[in-house]
Amino acid sequence: MRILLAEDDDRIARDVLTTLTASGFLVDRERGGEETLFRGETEDYAAIVLDLGLPGMDGLTILRRWRAQGRATPVLILSARDAWTERVDGIDAGADDYLPKPFHMEEMLARLRAVVRRSAGQSAAVLKVGPLTLDTRQMRVSHDGIPLHLTPLEYRMLSYLLHHAGRVVPHQELASQLYADDAIKDGNAIEVLVGRLRRKLPDDLIETRRGFGYTIKGPVG
Length: 221
Ligand code: CA
Known about the structure:
By secondary structure, the chain is an alpha/beta fold. It contains 9 helices and 12 strands. It has helices at residues 10-22, 33-42, 59-68, 84-92, 105-119, 152-163, 171-178, 182-186, 189-200, and strands at residues 2-6, 26-30, 47-51, 75-80, 97-101, 126-129, 132-135, 140-143, 146-148, 169-170, 206-209, 213-216. Helix 1 (10-22) links the parallel strand 1 (2-6) and strand 2 (26-30). The chain is globular, with a radius of gyration of 18 Å. The relative contact order is 0.12. It binds calcium ion.
C-alpha cells in the first residue's frame, strides 16, 4: 500500500519512513504544504500521514481542500502535544485520527493500520478469507495454519487485494499502490507478480477480470 508522508521535520520523517517501509508500505515523502496538497490531489494513496505545521500551507488548510474536492483518503494527523484545539479542528476538518507529538512509532503504525482498514471497510487486524489468514501486525500470511513465505512486494499486493476483497481492483490502482516508478506501472510487472503470488496461494483465490483488474472474493472474517 502506498502512503503519503507530509512532515517537514527530517528526524521525525526519517523515523516514520523507516517504520512504514519495514512494515511493507510504499512511502512518498513531502516537506512543503503546497507540494503535499498537489500530491494528494494527483496520486492515489491508501492513507496520508499529515503534519499540521508544514511550511507554505498548513495541514488543516490542505485537509479542508482535499475534503472539499470529495477526496476520502484516510488522514492521520500529527500535531504538537499541547495543541488540543488544533486536533479538534483537524477532526472537524475530516481527519480520521490524530497523534500528538512526540509519539511512539508502534502507536503511529497501529493507528495508521486502523485507518487503512476502516476506510477499506475492514475492522480486524487479522484478515481471513477461507483458509487464508493475513496478520497485518506481524505481516504474516498462512494457509490452513501453515506459514507462506512471500516477498515484500507479494505481501503488499495480497494485503491490498484482501483489504478490498469483494471489489475488482483495477490494474492501474494496484500498480500505483505497489510501485513508485511510472515506467514499471505501465509494463506487465503486475501480471508477473500476480502469477508468482498465485503459485503460493490456494487455487482460484485471486481472480482475473480480463480488461478490468483483479479480485479476491469476500467475505473477509
Ligand atoms: Ca512541522
